[in-house]
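Kindly inspect the following:
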Amino acid sequence: MSHILDAFKLTGKTAIVTGAARGLGQGYCLALAEAGADIVAVDVIPMDDTVKQVGALGRKCAAIVANLADRKEGPRIIAEAHRTFASLDILVNNAGIIRREDFEKFSEKDWDDVININLSGVFFLSQAFVKDVLARQAKAKIINVASMLSFQGGIRVPSYTASKSAVQGLTRLMANELAAKGFNVNAIAPGYMATDNTAQLRADEKRNQAILDRIPAARWGTPDDLKGTVVFLASAASDYVNGYTVAVDGGWLAR
């Protein structure tokens, strides 16, 4: 008779994680590795630290340098991952960038750069992953990374808000089409996290305090706060969860 905690184990699974070099992406890699998964780490910058830390947990980690703004990278990432791993079971679409500027001054480049990585990158890598899983007649988990700005408008981040709102909608669409084909597609919406993306906000004393005042937990989140959620959504424990965006936000949305 199996124990409920066995449903959270990822032994024998392989997870692709984008934006894996640092921050939340590195945190997802380590969480999945701790649960037993091997890792395919994807980023535009070196991932030596992630590879080292995953290895220290006794798991394999293959690093693939790729720019997800290039729509042709998806099939290449899948092909390269298969050079190391026969089975690809989990995809975490974490890679993302943000640009800040007043609405009327926002440039075409800042719009295109963010949309290309945060939305088009998610779509085209997911498409390549799904094709591969279907060809192998396997089952898989896809976890997209949404945001508080999937629910709210924010300020001075139009392309980021548009992309993350779209990621939540795309997650639902993917679940509708793929659930019957053996996929679970869900999203995580991290709250205000202490990462490179929020360094500007945390350095602004007034904005930092305004954000903390709004968070019931009264602190910024950390990559460790997301570990349980990513393992849950990647594991058999979530086999009947589909199309949902889980907020891990210290209560921000409850205010």
User: Anything to note?
Assistant: The mean pLDDT is 97. The CA atoms of residues 201 and 207 lie 6 Å apart. Strands lie at 14-18, 38-43, 61-65, 90-93, 140-145, 183-190, 245-248.
